[in-house]
Design goal:
Blueprint lengths: L1 E5 L2 H18 L4 E4 L6 H12 L9 E4 L1 E3 L10 H13 L6 E2 L8 H14 L5 E4 L21 E4 L2 H7 L12 E4 L2 H5 L3 E6 L5 H9 L17 E6 L9 H9 L8
Parallel strand pairs: 1-10, 2-3, 2-6, 3-5, 6-9, 9-10
Antiparallel strand pairs: 4-8, 7-8
Bound molecules: 2-amino-2-deoxy-6-O-phosphono-alpha-D-glucopyranose.
Length: 260
């Protein structure tokens, strides 16, 4: 696992966008897994800026979604499909044609989960999966104690996650209780995992992810098992890392030929 510590949220976005730009330069039709939440927004802003400046061509890029609420009516502004369209597809000039996501409005949810697993496989697998992290260490919607071998399935949100996400809805009651999410094994199939976090509220989850024991109670600790995982954090999110100085020195001495 490589840990990159930078000054602030905007710098987190620039470094992660650089990794995506490097991928697209070599593989224009790459499959990019995107995440919702506030953490990845600076990444999308940095990508959109590069596209607008003519520095990056994403016209062939394909996008896929990590997770989705169950039961929101189609077109609900907080469905993750709508969020990704608003925050990723439109700013990058992409359409729903280049987008894969699980169907949270399906009558048969297990079948929708199996169909999404199949779609990801048939698309050739995810090249780079961008991840945020919940304050309880969840990735996607894999709440604490999710199995490391889990595939896409229905999960129940914890009270804490529903409280965290209530800011996007009118009230806590409007936050769905159930979701579909890529499992931890599904996420780990991606060839490169890039987790971004900023702010003090994520410091404990980041310390447990990077330096804590491998434990289902911290779902993001599964990144420790991945052959190519990068964690990009700002100083506040890094503030509880015991090995921060080593991580800084390692990144500062990174050979120029070596990409993230
Ligand atoms: N399912 C999403 C996660 O993918 C995201 O990482 C998390 C953190 O969001 P934020 O970055 O806003 O703290 O929110 C939701 O639970």
């Amino acid at each position: 696992m490589e840990i990159v510590i930078v000054a602030d949220r905007a710098a987190v976005g620039e470094v992660a966008a650089g990794a995506i730009a490097d991928l697209v330069a070599g593989t224009p039709r790459a499959l990019l897994g995107v995440a919702t939440g506030s953490s990845p927004l600076p990444v999308y802003t940095a990508l959109a800026r590069r596209v607008a400046a003519g520095e990056l061509d994403v016209s062939e890029l394909r996008i896929c979604q990590l997770d989705e609420y169950v039961g929101l009516p189609p077109g609900h502004p907080e469905s993750y499909r709508a969020v990704i369209e608003r925050e990723v597809l439109t700013p990058l000039g992409l359409t729903q044609d280049s987008f894969l996501g699980p169907d949270g409005a399906a009558d048969d949810l297990p079948a929708a989960c199996a169909a999404y697993e199949r779609e990801l496989r048939e698309a050739g697998g995810v090249d780079l999966q961008l991840l945020g992290i919940g304050s309880d260490g969840h990735i996607g919607f894999n709440e604490p104690c999710s199995s490391f071998s889990s595939r896409t399935r229905v999960k129940t949100l914890t009270h804490r996650t529903r409280l965290d996400n209530a800011r996007f809805f009118g009230s806590l009651d409007e936050v769905p209780l159930h979701v579909l999410t890529q499992g931890i094994a599904t996420i780990s199939d991606a060839r490169h995992l890039v987790l971004v976090a900023s702010g003090e509220a994520k410091a404990e989850a980041i310390a447990l992810t990077v330096e804590g024991p491998l434990a289902a109670v911290t779902p993001a600790s599964a990144l420790q098992l991945h052959p190519h995982a990068t964690v990009i954090v700002d100083e506040a999110a890094a503030s509880r890392l015991k090995h921060a100085d080593y991580f800084r020195a390692t990144y500062a001495a990174k050979p120029s030929w070596q990409k993230l």
